[in-house]
Design a protein that fits this description.
globular; single chain; six-stranded parallel sheet; alpha/beta; about 525 residues; eight-stranded mixed sheet
Amino acid sequence: MQGDRVVVIGAGIAGLVSALRLAHAGLDVTVLERGPKPGGKMRSVGVAGRAIEAGPTVFTMRWVFEEIFAEAGADLGASVALTPAAILARHAWRGDRRLDLFADHEASVDAIGAFAGAREAEGYRRFCARAGEVYRTLEGPFIRGTRPNPVELGRRVGLSGIGDLWRIQPFSTLWGALGDYFRDPRLRQLFGRYATYCGASPFEAPATLMLVAHVEAQGVWTIEGGLSRLAQACADLAAARGASFRYGADVARIVVEGGAVAGVELAGGERIAADAVVANADVAALGAGLFGPEAARVTDPVALAERSLSAVTFCMNARPEGFPLVRHTVFFSDDYASEFAELRKGRRLPADPTVYICAQDRGDAAVPAVDGPERLLCLVNAPATGERPLDPTELRQCETNLRRRLQAAGLTLNEEPGMVVTDPAGFAGLFPATGGALYGRASHGWMASFKRPGARTRLPGLYLAGGSVHPGPGVPMAAQSGRLAADSLLADLPADRPSRRASTPRSGRVATSGGTSTP
């Protein structure tokens, strides 16, 4: 790469972070986004004139964004309003069986003791200790580092860390490892659910995913305006540092000349020259040839069996009755093994689904901050078979099954007209070539994390970022992939390259819809 013109395809969080870092470094950055606004999966939908978060809702690993903003000369806390959660989540089973996990570790220990007994409380202590070990073992060499292979990971941890690497149980499933800490099947179900944060089944995902428990225990925050507001804050900061944004700009092809990236071509035929491209798109889209034959060769296609989970989401304004919802509430199915057998082997919606509800007008108190209907996101897992839309009968049955699960715990939802439903086909439309998979390749088996591509590709000038790229899915991980893509690109610049700016950023430019940015 000889010049400083960079095109970022996609304004998901990874693309936004890449654009921010590259613009702050003085490169000429243009972000091309096919949608009308930034965020990608960090999206909201309008329901009866109210914005309801329809993507990720749990904000953890705050340090990732604090570092990203600080490295661009800004302050995260001054850009978005953050409130720490005292209750991480409320968990419910049939009847009145409920368990809250808290930001206060000892409060969680006491709650588990009251719920399942002293033995399980002690098991929780041991589980948290091990989850912390797993996280600390992987943070430096894996989460913060470029994608390693297994041998390189061993080299990074060094001789003194090999024992730690072995103790994280990479060859055990999460479900199997949880049996070392919990006898109560409800607790195995609760902590096994962390596999779904990566779109995986706890019966196939590696035990290393127990690190999610440590991440949540370190803090969950609520962002005023939701995670889509965080995406907008990143876009605003990138624009202030000089990046240009074009919305409604659908990239049809990555242009290659002389064996290296030369720019992109839009669906309408317009060509934009570039010395490098950061593709913030699911690798399935590249592998399927949606960005041209040359780009398709940098990654393998994602087979149906390798896809992570999709979802069916119901965004609604409703009046809940009969159950004390908090911000994050999970209603568990009666038989987790059967649920995932239907999802993974049967590739069908489960008859008895686990349901997640984000009550967006509530915090820790089981009382909404508004009078009248509340904004709710209800979600059930679904197979990533979005090539075939669910027919009306299937959608009605899915909603019936959801309501039956909620009613088993005493909750009734009285919704207002205008509910917005998104099924796997809807997600496939938003994120082409994925079949609706929301997390890239499923994190199944010990090699899964090493199958994700890294930032650099074998096509000079093309870099990858996003949740389907190392280090993996989830908002902070995807943001970290954006950092790694930008840092890799910057490291590949010629050492004698003249800088476009010394110490001050170029003036920000206004984002336009489909057109060029203006002063």
